[in-house]
Amino acid sequence: MSRFVEALASHSQLWGGWVVAPTLIGPEEFAAACYHYVGFDVQHGYLDDADVAMLLRRTEHLPIATAVRLPSADPAPIGRVLDAGADAVIVAMVENPDQAARAVAATRYAPAGVRSFGPLRASLGHDPAALEARVSVFVLIETARGLAAVDEICAVPGLAGLYVGPADLAISMGVRPADAGTHPDVRAAIARVRKTATAAGLVAGIHAGTGQLGNLFAQEGFRMITLASESQALRRGAADHLSEAMGQAAATTERGGYN
């Protein structure tokens, strides 16, 4: 059993952080803040296979689960991140059940799938059945086509859940990505994915981007919620520190503290 599966069994909601660059500090800080998982972005981030392998190794003894977002169901990249120890994969731009089935097949050995055997971490063992069982497979619903096929996608055996990408979903529906969290049509589409996944016994996940939206999505029933990337967290923390410092300095100056 992976840390991701253990976390799902223990918590009604999983809160996630996101890493888009080869940082050693980011995953440790998310773990220290009691996030349940950290996602490594190979689709939009500045991470290659070696970076992901290093980051996964770095998190091996941290109390945090790991997921890797990949741009497609290509079995070779998926196999490499699983060999390096990822607890879950999130496959982007899935628009039909065939693509979802290919994503699952990329995580399974023959005869059930097309994954090639080559574990890189001794701690994972060498039992193919155990290696398969520890992997959670999520597919990203982030287009109008994916939304239209969501019932068929949920019927694909081997999926752990659906993960909503609100920005791309909004764009595909003719809505600005900045309005994804408030536009009624996009909100209805997000709700549809969540309801369909839940009814199928799958985990409903979403990329919130902020704590405020994360809280809203949790109240609506999403179980896997990514809050912010390490760059967003750094930007917010840096801005808060600067605001506090400048506000304190201004107040002190008004009181005549500096001469």
UniProtKB/TrEMBL annotation:
What cellular component terms from Gene Ontology apply here? cytoplasm
Question: Which intervals hold domain HpcH/HpaI aldolase/citrate lyase?
Answer: 31-234
Which InterPro entries would you find in this protein's record? Aldolase/citrate-lyase_domain, HpcH-HpaI_aldolase, Pyrv/PenolPyrv_kinase-like_dom, Pyrv_kinase-like_dom_sf
The entry assigns this protein to a family as follows: Belongs to the HpcH/HpaI aldolase family.
> Which key words are in the record?
Lyase, Metal-binding
UniProt organism field: Mycobacterium aquaticum
What's the protein here called? Aldolase
Q: Name one GO molecular function term.
A: aldehyde-lyase activity
Q: Which residues cross the membrane?
A: none
Question: Does Amino-acid biosynthesis show up as a keyword for this record?
Answer: no
Entries under Pfam families matching the protein = HpcH_HpaI
